[in-house]
Specification:
The chain is of the alpha+beta class. The protein is 47% helix and 9% strand. The strands form two sheets. It has a seven-stranded mixed sheet, sandwiched between helices. Strands 5-6-9 form a three-stranded antiparallel sheet. Strand 1 and strand 2 form a beta hairpin. The longest helix has 25 residues. The N and C termini lie far apart (108 Å).
């Protein structure tokens, strides 16, 4: 006798196949593609396609929204938008100013990009002794910001986005998404048709909202009496010499990228006073007039705050981004429920739109974002090949002398003038080579004597000073004599290169 189960567990026609969970895949590529949205022109208008990974994108970018509601839906740290989109946060190399005495152990994101750009340059191979090559890049900084009337606010300049081929490539996923949506409607598969359409709308709206921000360069407002900002970025065997005004150099060492969102994106979804009590835990205050309650005191004082007292800062909540992130999450939930209800043809169309969109996201994520940022930075800093020259020097000592000569104030040779201007050539050389043995001390003294000589442009005089004297040949052992002769040869090579640059 056939046994029949008392409850029919196979009732209905619901079939949860694999196409419904396809939205979980491709999330990393979709996030990486979205992080390039502020770097390319027209990129924010090219998001109208049914992209996979909506759950990951929604959960990721939902963390930008900053309020109790959004923090509950999308838990995680509320980072600055520039850091969130990897436009800030990289640690730059060490910076040593030649005249102001400033030493920054770590610079910012812009200095990191400048250093990476200089590392990628092959440079001119300088003839001379070779032990381990050091790459030295000479940058003559240019005017970045116009004269500003604001005395306290840092200067800001909008960066035009990069123009690339992504607009033509974006036609593929957009066309595939709309065609597959139309074919599903033509076959009366309204489940798959509606889900593809929802993916197009959610992707397009998210791109418009998130991509509405403009990329800006924020500089540093220097003191009116600040000396020239000449200095050097040091990263191992890679040196970048920055020459120019303090404001232009400080933009590289301490400036940063920022994202400016329109007020309708930064709009606060709800303004409320923060309270320490937790709703629903039954521990509300029973003594509202207690004078020893710190928060009550703050609230009472806030009502009596005068016009000259500091107001409570308003935090941008980015509610519009939170709404788009919520729509992306709802999109995946809808796909899980409705795509299995569609026909086999509709599910194939749905996966086809995903495949085309995933390929486009993969194309965007494969592009080196740091390289695009480097190009945008050089363009906004008005730097090109005329202002940047890279040299590959054979030894560390050659690089040290060359850097010291290039950072020397023009036409200033007296030691008293160096002290008045804050220029310490010996300190600069020690930043490269801190050795303090007799041979190195003698070598540094000879290099400084060349810099102090009024006839510094005379090659013969320089070479006479950069020779080992008879007295030094008696004092030093043969090994030390050989070392000193090599060091003086490096100094002569650096001198010739520096003179060729200053002529």
């Amino acid at each position: 006798m056939h046994y029949k189960h008392p409850i029919d567990i196979n009732a209905g026609h619901f079939d949860l196949d694999v196409s419904g969970v396809a939205g979980f895949f491709g999330g990393e590529e979709a996030i990486s593609a979205m992080q390039t949205i502020h770097l390319y022109k027209y990129r924010k208008w090219m998001g109208w396609y049914n992209s996979p990974g909506s759950w990951n994108v929604g959960k990721k970018f939902g963390m930008l929204a900053n309020s109790r509601l959004w923090d509950g839906l999308f838990p995680g740290p509320n980072e600055d938008p520039a850091k969130f989109f990897e436009l800030d946060g990289k640690r730059g190399p060490r910076y040593v100013a030649s005249r102001s005495g400033t030493i920054l152990e770590h610079t910012g994101h812009l200095a990191y990009l400048v250093m990476q750009t200089c590392k990628e340059e092959l440079g001119v191979q300088v003839k001379g002794r070779v032990t381990k090559r050091n790459k030295v890049t000479l940058i003559q900084t240019q005017l970045v910001f116009e004269e500003s009337t604001a005395k306290e606010k840092p200067p800001v300049r909008t960066i035009p986005p990069h123009i690339g081929h992504h607009t033509r490539v974006a036609i593929l996923p957009i066309a595939v998404s709309f065609i597959t949506c139309a074919l599903c409607g033509w076959t009366y598969d309204w489940f798959c048709c509606s889900m593809i359409l929802l993916g197009i709308i959610s992707g397009g709206m998210s791109s418009l909202v998130i991509g509405s921000a403009s990329l800006e360069l924020q500089g540093v407002k220097p003191a009116p009496t600040a000396p020239p900002g000449d200095g050097m970025l040091m990263d191992g065997d890679n040196i970048v010499l920055l020459l120019g005004k303090e404001e232009n150099v400080a933009t590289i060492t301490r400036g940063k990228f920022t994202l400016y969102f329109e007020p309708w994106v930064r709009w606060r979804s709800r303004k409320e006073k923060r309270k320490r009590s937790i709703p629903g835990d039954g521990t509300e205050s029973t003594s509202p007039n207690r004078t020893n309650d710190a928060e009550a005191g703050l609230q009472n004082n806030s009502s009596d705050r005068g016009p000259n007292q500091e107001a409570v800062p308003i935090t941008d909540e980015y509610a519009a981004i939170g709404m788009c992130s919520l729509l992306l999450v709802i999109q995946l939930l809808g796909q899980l429920l409705l795509i299995p209800q569609g026909t086999f043809f509709g599910q194939i169309m749905f996966l086809s739109s995903f495949a085309a969109s995933w390929a486009y996201n993969l194309y965007l994520s494969s592009i080196d974002k740091d390289y695009i940022q480097e190009q945008l930075l050089l363009r906004i800093l008005n730097l090109d090949e005329r202002h940047m020259r890279t040299y590959s020097l054979g030894t560390r000592t050659t690089a040290a002398v060359f850097a010291c000569l290039m950072l020397q104030p023009p036409g200033v040779c007296a030691e008293s003038e160096w002290e008045r201007l804050g220029f310490d050539p010996e300190g600069i050389i020690r930043k490269f080579i801190p050795n303090n043995t007799p041979v190195w001390v003698t070598w540094r003294e000879k290099v400084l004597s060349v810099m102090k000589d009024q006839k510094i442009r005379s090659r013969d005089t320089c070479y006479e000073l950069l020779q080992m004297s008879d007295e030094e040949k008696v004092i030093f052992e043969p090994n030390d004599q050989n070392l000193l002769e090599h060091l003086l040869e490096d100094a002569r090579t650096a001198y010739d290169l520096a003179m060729s640059q200053q002529l």
